[in-house]
Amino acid sequence: MPRFSTLGAERLALVALAVLLVGAGIGWRQPMNVDEERFLGVALEMLQGGNWFIPHRAGEIYGDKPPLFMWTVALFSHLTGSPKVALYLPGLLSAATITWVLHDLGRRLWTRRIGVIAALLFLATYQSYSILRTGQIDSFLCLWVALGFYGMLRHLLLGPAWGWFYLACAAMGLGIISKGVGFIPALLLVPYAWAVRHHWHGVVAMPGQGWRWSLGLLWLLSGCAVWLLPLLVSIAHGGGAAELAYLKEILLRQTASRYANAWDHREPFWYYFVKVIPKYWLPLVLALPWLIPAWRRQLHKHDGRFLLLLGWVALVLLFFSLSSGKRKLYIFPALPGLVLAIAPLLPWLLKRWLGGRPAWRKAFTAVALAWFALWFARGFVEPLKEGRNPHETLMTEAARATGGAELVLVNWREGHWLFARQPIVHFGFTGQSRADAAVYWLRHNPAAFALVPASELGRCFNAGKARRLGETSRAEWYVVGADADNGQCQATAPSHVYHFAWVRPIPVGATVLDISSSQHWPL
C-alpha cells in the first residue's frame, strides 16, 4: 500500500495542475458574452438589493435559472472584492473537484496509475477548458454532478456505502438548484439495475434495502430545499402576482416545458455527435477506433465497471439529444464518465501504438507537454486578444454624453445593465422595450435620455439630433434626448416600468476592477 503522504502529494499535484491550467489568466478575464454578463449582474444585484431567493435583472424578476450559481458568485465577490475574479472561481473549484474525483475513483476501481491517467485525460480534453474557464452555470453544475457521480459509484461499485449514496443524492439536489438537470447522476441506476439483474461482476447487489434506497429521495429533496423552502415561505408571506409567476416559470416552463419544446438553440437529434463531440472531446475521440472494440471485449466479460460508466455516458448523451434545445456545453457532465472508461485502457493503447520505439515515446511525451503548455498560455492570450468589453466602453460613453442623467434602455442586452454608470429605466427585458415606450418616457421626463439601436432610431427620433456611441450586440447604438422626438410615434404609457441604479457601478478597465479596500459589496 502506498504511503498516504505520497498519495496525498500526488493528488495535490494533480489538483494544483488543474488550478494552474484552468486558472491561467484569471484576473485578466472579464465577462464577454451574454451569459457571463447576465449571471454576474444578477449576483451583484443580489448583493446590492438583498433579495436572495428570487433573482432580479435590472429590477425585474429573472426567472430562467435557479440561484445557487449566482449565490456563489455573489459570495466570492464579497470575499475577494473583485467581481470579475469571482465570476470564474466556481469553474476553478469545479476543475479541482472533478480532478480529485477522477483520481480517487480511478485508484479505487483500478490502480493508482489509472487514477493519475484519468485526471490527466480530463485536463487534456478541449471541452474542459472551453467550459471550466467560463463564468457560466454549467461550469459550476459539473461540480455537483461530479460529487453525485462519485458518491453513486462509491456505493454501486465499491459499497455498500449508504453514506456516499446519500451524499450523492444531496449533491444532485444542489445541482438541481444550480440548473434543473443536476439529477443526471441518478441515471447510473439504470445500467446498475441491469448489471445486478444479469449478475455482472464488479457491482454490489443490495437486495431487501428498499427503505434505504427511498431515503435517497429525501436527501435529494433536502438539497433542493436549501432554496425552494425559503422561497415558498417568502412567497406565502407576502408574494404577489409577479412572485407567483416566477414560481410557475422556474418550476414548470424552464424545466419540463423547455426540455420538451425548447424556444432557443433548437438543433437536430444528431447535433452532439456530428457538431460537438468530434471537436470538443479532442483528443479522446482520436482513440475511438481502438477503444470501441476494447470496450466491447470488456462488456463481453460482464465487467460492471465499464457497463455503468459507458451506460451512463450513453444515457446522458441520449437525454440531451432527445431535447429539441441543444448547446455544446450541455453534454460536458458526461465527460468524466467517458474519461474514467478510457483511463484503464490507455496503457494498453500506448503500448500498442508506441511499442518498443523510444523515439516515438519521446515524441508522444513532447506533444503531451506542448498540449498542456498551449492551454496554459491560452489563458493569458485570450483576454489580451479579446480586449475590453464593448458594452463597458459604450456605457462609459453614454454616461459621459448624458452627464450621468437617467437613461432609458431600448432593446437592451445584459451588458448595458451590467456596465451602466447611471440610473437606468426599462420596460421589461423579455418583451423588449420599444422606441414608442422610450418616447413616452422622454415626453414626461425631458431631463432623461434614451439608448436606442439604429433599427429603432428613425421611427420615433430625428437621427440628426442623435449621438452615435458605438457598436455592440450586432447593433449600432445612439443616445437621444427629448429634443430628438420627431412626433411620429403615438406613445402610450408602458404596462411595466423598472428603475435601477448600481450603488457602486463596476469600474472601467479591462484588466483591473477598481474595488477599493474600504468599500465592499454589501451582504
UniProtKB/TrEMBL annotation:
GO biological process: lipopolysaccharide biosynthetic process; response to iron(III) ion
Segments passing through the bilayer: 12-28, 85-102, 114-132, 139-158, 164-194, 215-236, 269-292, 304-323, 329-350, 362-381
Membrane topology: Multi-pass membrane protein
Broad class of where this protein is predominantly found: membrane
GO-annotated cellular components: plasma membrane
An example Gene Ontology molecular-function term: pentosyltransferase activity
Record's keyword terms, sorted: Cell membrane, Glycosyltransferase, Membrane, Transferase, Transmembrane, Transmembrane helix
Location(s), subcellular: Cell membrane
Keyword hit for Cytoplasm: no
InterPro entries the UniProt entry points to: LipidA_mod_glycosyltrf_83, RgtA/B/C-like
All copies of domain Glycosyltransferase RgtA/B/C/D-like, residue ranges: 64-197
Domain of life of the organism encoding this protein: Bacteria
Protein name: Dolichyl-phosphate-mannose-protein mannosyltransferase
Organism, scientific name: Pseudomonas inefficax
Species classification: Bacteria, Pseudomonadati, Pseudomonadota, Gammaproteobacteria, Pseudomonadales
